[in-house]
Design a protein that fits this description.
The structure is a homodimer of 302-residue chains.
Chain A: E1 6-9, E2 13-19, E3 22-29, H1 31-39, E4 45-52, H2 57-65, E5 69-76, E6 82-87, E7 94-100, H3 113-116, E8 120-123, H4 128-137, E9 143-147, H5 150-155, H6 157-164, E10 169-173, H7 174-181, H8 186-194, E11 200-204, E12 210-214, E13 217-221, H9 235-247, H10 255-272, H11 279-282, H12 286-300
Parallel strand pairs in A: 1-4, 1-8, 2-6, 4-5, 8-9, 9-10, 10-11
Antiparallel strand pairs in A: 2-3, 6-7, 11-12, 12-13
């Protein structure tokens, strides 16, 4: 199976993170970065994003070294998007201490002719207006997936709902699904989301796994159990990278492909949380991915 | 496979419960009741417990109608054990409003010769001193399982740890595993528990499923997803009933049997939470159990 190139828009950021196990300052982060570093094991990936003049060149080189096409990452006047977060021992919930949108505040993405020809599009978590501006420029997308966060549900719900109608696969976490749908029960929440357009709704529950809903099926998987979770930042984006990367090989969304893709997403996320920033994903190997996929089978088969 | 009789000691209680979906007063509850109503689908069950003079005869008749042997339920002077609890929309956590031990405060179980000959013993959640007093009287047990709760970890840890050394299977929920072991990470918590004696540690995570640990294996399953969870009271005990009931048919604890037993436990618990008290379990059929087991396979296979 030939893999289609995936075009991904989202944030490329400088993260400052503190967990019970350590802290880092201005490290490479952002939804598009984590997605790209995970998806690249399955398909070629092009990122569309903006960074400021202060963005260290070494971070761009790391993404390039991972084989990610950074031709669509623009450098603009001003400072790079920054996120500062904190995790307690309950690593499931990030506490955002500070978000500075900076150059993303005025970002007007302009896609190259090559990027406009992309068939598979991932709209990583960022302002839904920017997600739509990118999607508008893609000529004939065959598969569109989208993630978001509570901030956009609260501040740009209309824009997000317009986008949802044009999306095949929607990903969010459990509290976002509840907030977006107004339903506490996750089966009802997913039904509300699917009614807005997507064929698939993936609800991420952090250390409690993932639920994958379509109109007539439901797939539930636990997370891969780890003895040491170092930093959960980017887990959802690397899940999306593994998931969409695998799906891109056969984008008909058959139940069999979707379920395997969920496991690959789980595997990529589980590696990502083993260290800060992209450092684990950057040195990950296909053999390690295949190994943990098998481990996951042993963990769950009955 | 012939099923061995299971002897279970635990509480038979009058529960007053309020959930977002309704409330009941002085309904049939207690760890032994829920266990028995679930386990009886797989094996004959005898309960050892005490009730007060105020205990309605209809509750005993219901247990008998379920095919549970109530010969070991003693009626003592005084009032029946009572529990009053409250659940918010997050149905995962019960808030105990009141616990009255009443007749259980001075309960000294005395087993009949027939009960003393039991081979499979379940020590449902109750004072570990009472659990040990029952186990002491069983002549030659081949398989012993035990549940507990935070109250006993906090108030009778020594007694509980002594018991743990004599138990094959230990069940508790995630917060209890953390409290008992002093470890936040559940892999480490389970390792701490297994080091105390049990061959299997089952950590129940409510709506997030179950983890099953032995020295050299780990099994993780999500919960059965329900659109309507009515009342979670007794979910853990009916899980134990389904689990130990299935295991009782081939008590060698092979990996294959244990994993299937975890699914049967999950199925029984999922039915139990569909209504107050034992009402769903009382009218459950073997065909419904088999049906949901198959549904669970569909929900999780990849």
């Amino acid at each position: 199976m030939k893999s289609e190139r995936i075009l991904a828009v989202g944030s490329v950021a400088l993260d400052s993170v503190e967990t019970p196990f350590g802290k880092v300052k201005d490290t490479l982060g952002g939804s598009a970065s984590f997605f790209g570093a995970a998806a690249r094991f399955f398909a070629p990936v092009s990122l569309v994003a903006v960074v400021g003049e202060d963005f260290p060149k070494k971070h761009l080189r790391l993404l390039e070294k991972c084989g990610v096409d950074i031709g669509g990452i623009e450098t603009a006047r001003g400072k790079t998007f920054r996120w500062r977060g904190f995790y307690d021992y309950d690593l499931n919930n990030a506490r955002t201490l500070k978000t500075e949108l900076n150059v993303f505040q005025s970002f007007k993405p302009r896609l190259s002719p090559e990027h406009r020809a992309s068939r598979i599009v991932f709209l990583a978590n960022i302002d839904p207006d920017i997600q739509r501006a990118v999607l508008d420029q893609v000529r004939n997308p065959s598969l569109v997936a989208c993630d978001t966060m509570n901030y956009w549900i609260e501040h740009k719900k209309k824009s997000l709902l317009k986008l949802l109608a044009r999306v095949d696969i929607f990903l969010c976490n459990d509290s976002e699904a509840r907030e977006l749908s107004g339903e506490y029960n996750l089966i009802k929440a997913a039904r509300g989301i699917l009614a807005r357009g997507p064929r698939l709704a993936l609800i991420k529950k952090g250390e409690h796994g993932v639920l994958c809903f379509s109109q007539n099926s439901l797939f539930s998987v636990p997370a891969y159990l780890l003895e040491k979770i170092f930093d959960p930042t980017g887990a959802g984006d690397s899940f999306a990278g593994g998931f969409l990367g695998y799906v891109s090989k056969s984008p008909n969304l058959s139940e069999r492909v979707v379920r395997r893709a969920v496991i690959y997403g789980t595997v990529l996320a589980s590696y990502n949380v083993e260290s800060f920033s992209l450092s684990r994903l950057a040195r990950l190997t296909p053999a390690e991915i295949a190994g943990r996929y098998k481990e996951f089978q042993k963990l769950t088969r009955f």
